[in-house]
Amino acid sequence: MKIAVFERSGEKYVGQVLENENIIQRFDLTLKDFEFSGVTALIGRDLPLVTEEIPLDEVMLLAPVPRPLRNIFCVGKNYRDHAREFTSSGFDSSANKGTIPKAPIVFSKVPETVIGPGDPIKVDNTVSTEIDYEVELAVIIGKSGRNISREDAASHVWGYTIINDVTARNLQGLHSQWLIGKSQDTFCPMGPWAVTTDEIDLNDTYIRCWVNGELRQDSNTNLLIFDVPEIISAISNGIMLNCGDVIATGTPAGVGIGFKPPKFLKPGDKTRLEIQGIGVLENQVEGY
């Protein structure tokens, strides 16, 4: 099932996307149920009644979780090819440089970074001209838990979406940690909607990114160093994962810093992210 948050005639709604029919079925939910929580308002409740069917091209899609309740958990260097290109780029400030991580490298992005499909990624050249893109599979937690075992992790997942982990590389290196470089305003495009777990097979799901029509990242989730169950188990080790938490699982090779010279984003560029079974997330870069 594909679930979207959308706006129509100034009002915000949640509905089921029937992509092949190019329609969205609006659920009977009031604004207060999902203004910030988005699709997570459906977790733990019976599916609401459908009130109307609307052509998909008549609505404006919003981020499926417009404002997460707390920081988005992110995993760094989680594809071997990207770990190698990141290490050789000169921007790697993580521990164990030059090695494949022995445990997930976890950082976060603040909730206010989230924007929706079609929203502009805004870059401030007075802050950074080294803006990078990163296509990532994101997990939406549907059941809270602490010290979750790998074997039980799947039962805590409600669904998945796509995230572009946009990064100011100079700030990432300058501060020797990743929060500031990852948490610039508008640096977390999310969408185009969320899908329930039955929609994709993480053992064989392609993940791709284009910039201005040029294919930059082309990989598969079966190449993750730490898969989704391992990530959930690691993050919940002594930390309560809450219903509605979002986890970005890492990006494959092909990011801007992997090229010589680097191919950074600039105003006017268009990013197109695609994950099999989910959909396509597109955003354009604008300057302030």
Would you mind describing this structure in some detail?
With 288 residues, the protein is mostly beta strands. It folds into two domains: 2-61, no CATH class; 72-287, Fumarylacetoacetase-like, C-terminal domain (Fumarylacetoacetate hydrolase, domain 2, Alpha-Beta Complex). The chain has four helices and 19 strands. Strands 1, 2, 3, 4, 5, 6, 7, 8, 11, 12, 14 and 17 form a twelve-stranded mixed β-sheet that branches. Strand 2 (11-18) and strand 3 form a beta hairpin. The longest helix is centred in the N-terminal third of the chain and has 10 residues, at 80-89.
Report on the biggest sheet: 12 strands, mixed
Rg, Å, rounded: 18 Å
Write the CATH architecture name of the largest domain: Alpha-Beta Complex
Please report the first level of CATH classification, the CATH class of the largest domain: Alpha Beta
* Unreliably modeled segments: none
Structural class label = mainly beta
N-to-C SSE string, H for helix and E for strand: EEEEEEHEEEEEEEHHEEEHEEE
Tell me the CATH topology of the largest domain: Fumarylacetoacetate hydrolase, domain 2
Helix content: under 10%
Query: pLDDT average, as an integer?
Result: 93
What is the count of distinct domains? 2
Head-to-tail CA distance between termini: 37 Å
Shape: globular
- Number of β-strand runs: 19
Give the name of the CATH superfamily of the largest domain. Answer: Fumarylacetoacetase-like, C-terminal domain
| Strand proportion | 35-45%
Please give the count of helices: 4
